[in-house]
Amino acid sequence: MIALTNAAPLANAIRKAKSLRPRVQFVAFRVYQVISPCSGNVYRVTFSVNPQTGSRQGHCTCRAGVEAMACWHLAAAVAVHQAIQAVRVHAKAQLEAARESAKELRREREMVALNPS
Question: Where are the domains of the chain?
């Protein structure tokens, strides 16, 4: 497992991922498949959060990942994971706003029904 506390240890991996532009596929929550554009090899990247400490870790099935070294597969998957999480957070906020708006509309309709003019 590779600790994902900050981007500094992943700096070289991030640069390489940006230059290679690998294909990253969502498999399941916190699980991604990264396909090497050069060799076509497929690597599985998983993310986890320690429930006691809240620390975040990542793991890749490539040689570097097995040795707990930061790899470009992990960096590419992190970028996709962060984007997906940002969309989820935004969607959740939009849903909450819509629910609040619907509640307010119901209250207004009830007030009109109770006080017809």
Answer: 2-83
